[in-house]
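re: ur msg from earlier - yeah i can do the D-xylitol-5-phosphate complex, just paste it... oh wait u already did. ok heres what im feeding in:
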Amino acid sequence: MPSTLSFDQSRLAEELADAERAGADVLQWDVMDGAFVPNLTVGWDVIAACRQHTQVPFEAHLMIADPGRYVEQFGKAGNERLIVHVEACTHLHRVLQQIKAEGLQAGVALNPATPLEVVENVLDLVDTVLIMTVNPGFGGQHFIATMIPKIREAAAHIAERQLAVRIEVDGGITPDTIRSVYDAGARKFVAGTAVAHHPRGKAAAIAELRAALP
Ligand code: DX5
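and the outut:
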């Protein structure tokens, strides 16, 4: 799942088409508001403008304060899934209900310092729990290996409750780290730098990531 954050922002349409040819399963938009995270990126208009340039499904990782304000706009822009941060929602359960009421898939994201317990009561509303393996805001950061036990704990909890929830990881995912998070239970992998900045291009990058998995 390439993150668009690391794409050439002056050539997004071409980059998206390139990612599709390279075999991307999903394209993730990293939406940042400069408040919840110390960076500012795209809004729903950019996503909507890009929708026509690829058939690959979009999801939006909303690293924004009070994301419930914009569920409708990010849904109408062409995202199939909206992932919100538990740390950004005063009423997380209501926001996830709102996302599902728009006919979208809902995901919940946890920053590295946030324990899994805080989302236990909403896992029945989501199809994805995103466990951040970097502190959100930027691409190219180092993988936080202490998140591996948290991934393992989430996988065990999901299995015990027989929930239809898949674990997604995001941050520092490379051919050197992807197997460790897979073995802990992750099944969806967001990669920014590892895909966008690979010397032999996105197809080689995605092939290398896939080759690192069983
Ligand atoms: C960080 C973003 C990540 C980031 C991943 O806030 O949520 O998606 O783009 O970039 P890499 O894969 O370079 O760590």
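cool cool. DSSP finds eight helices and seven strands in the chain. ping me if u need the other ligands too
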